[in-house]
């Protein structure tokens, strides 16, 4: 189906159908922050809709259909449409307008996808996992350390559609940075895709640095004098959160390799060099995560060893005291037998002598155990 046919199809969906209905519904929803010119007043699902020409922002007049039609008629510039957790109904008109593949549309709406890059005709579909560090006063066995979300990106010759899932990972600051660099933005939609990938990977590095601080605190606590009393749940929680971070970072390696090495129609060779740089940053994040995982394993093993040593020390103390107590128990047991003829029963110094022997024997045992570190 041609682009003009797609436009006629969306425009002809009726007065209450299609994209214009989506736009009207979006205007009824709560407004987003409009404190900056780069943020759009279209609502919470349609976060932003901007046209760029030669790296410069062009004012948008009319609805999205009119905007896309003007861009395609001029054969210059592109449209960047940003959405946040759209519904099937809201995305239906957009999918028809840009001729998006149904499978990619389903992935973008449903979310919970692995990082990947797929090509559908002239359209490239990329999925990135976003991460953010959750601030906490003290790490506990139930603390949330890493929060994840997703960004889906549709890239065509004259459009970029970003679909964001999650409460973090806003692209507003990224859009502002790109608008401050018109030369890079003039390279087209592929430059926007690179900027998003670079932004996501930079967040990976920031989160790994923050997680390292938590690991350092746990490591310090484990190897302190009271290390055996550290809650092992804190270590397990860090490992679980690190695993969630690993699930977001590790699968992105192959998609970035594909973007940086394989010829793709919508990505110019000069942009692929930028993706190689992003791939290097991702490799650094993966290496840090792998090192953290090994370090946490070592910390956990050290903690378990400390617990075992502490238990052994307790058992030695118990054993030593049991040996000390065994002396008076044995002597008292002997003299507690009811025999008529036992030594020293009728001697007036018998009792003090027995007590003295018991005290001396217990003192010798105590001193010996103390000297050997058992007490």
Task: Write a short abstract of this structure.
This protein has helices at 3-11, 18-28, 64-74, 88-98, 102-110, 172-179, 182-185, 189-222, 232-249, 253-261, 269-335, 350-371; strands at 46-53, 56-58, 78-84, 116-120, 123-133, 146-155, 159-165. It is an alpha+beta fold and 375 residues long. A 7-stranded mixed sheet has the order 2-1-3-7-6-5-4, with helices on both faces.
Outline:
rod-shaped
Largest sheet: 7 strands, mixed
Radius of gyration: 35 Å
Alpha plus pi helix count: 12
Mean pLDDT across all amino acids: 79
Strand content: 5-15%
Strand-pairing-aware structural class: alpha+beta
Distance N to C terminus: 87 Å
* Number of strand elements: 7
- Compressed to H and E, one letter per element, the order equals HHEEHEHHEEEEHHHHHHH
Helix content: 55-70%
Ordered list of secondary-structure elements with their pairings:
Blueprint: H1 3-11, H2 18-28, E1 46-53, E2 56-58, H3 64-74, E3 78-84, H4 88-98, H5 102-110, E4 116-120, E5 123-133, E6 146-155, E7 159-165, H6 172-179, H7 182-185, H8 189-222, H9 232-249, H10 253-261, H11 269-335, H12 350-371
Parallel strand pairs: 3-7
Antiparallel strand pairs: 1-2, 1-3, 4-5, 5-6, 6-7
Helix pairs in contact: 1-4, 2-4, 8-9, 8-11, 9-11, 10-11, 11-12
């Amino acid at each position: 189906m041609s682009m003009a046919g797609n436009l006629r199809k969306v425009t002809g969906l009726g007065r209450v159908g299609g994209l214009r209905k989506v736009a009207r519904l979006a205007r009824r929803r709560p407004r987003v922050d409009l404190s900056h010119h780069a943020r759009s007043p279209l609502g919470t699902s349609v976060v932003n809709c901007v046209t760029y020409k030669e790296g410069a922002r062009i004012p948008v007049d009319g609805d999205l259909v009119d905007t896309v039609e003007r861009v395609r008629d001029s054969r210059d510039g592109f449209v960047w449409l940003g959405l946040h957790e759209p519904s099937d109904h809201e995305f239906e008109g957009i999918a028809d307008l840009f001729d998006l593949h149904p499978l990619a549309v389903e992935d973008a709406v449903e979310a919970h996808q692995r990082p990947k890059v797929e090509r559908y005709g002239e359209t490239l579909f990329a999925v990135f996992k976003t991460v953010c560090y959750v601030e906490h006063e003290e790490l506990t066995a139930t603390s949330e350390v890493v929060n994840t979300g997703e960004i889906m990106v549709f890239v065509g010759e004259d459009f970029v559609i970003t679909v964001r899932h999650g409460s973090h990972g806003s692209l507003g600051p990224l859009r502002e940075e790109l608008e401050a660099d018109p030369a890079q933005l003039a390279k087209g939609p592929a430059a926007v895709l690179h900027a998003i990938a670079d932004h996501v990977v930079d967040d990976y590095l920031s989160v790994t640095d923050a997680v390292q601080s938590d690991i350092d605190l746990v490591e310090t606590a484990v190897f302190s004098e009271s290390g055996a009393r550290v809650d092992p749940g804190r270590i397990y929680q860090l490992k679980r959160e690190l695993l969630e971070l690993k699930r977001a970072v590790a699968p992105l390696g192959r998609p970035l390799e594909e973007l940086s090495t394989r010829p793709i129609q919508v990505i110019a060779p000069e942009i692929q060099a930028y993706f190689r740089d992003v791939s290097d940053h991702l490799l650094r994040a993966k290496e840090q995560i792998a090192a953290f995982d090994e370090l946490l394993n070592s910390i956990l093993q050290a903690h378990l060893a400390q617990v075992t040593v502490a238990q052994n020390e307790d058992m030695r103390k118990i054993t030593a005291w049991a040996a000390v107590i065994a002396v008076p128990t044995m002597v008292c047991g002997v003299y507690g037998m009811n025999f008529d003829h036992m030594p020293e029963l009728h001697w007036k110094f018998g009792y003090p002598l027995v007590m003295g022997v018991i005290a001396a024997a217990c003192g010798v045992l105590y001193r010996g155990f103390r000297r050997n570190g058992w007490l």
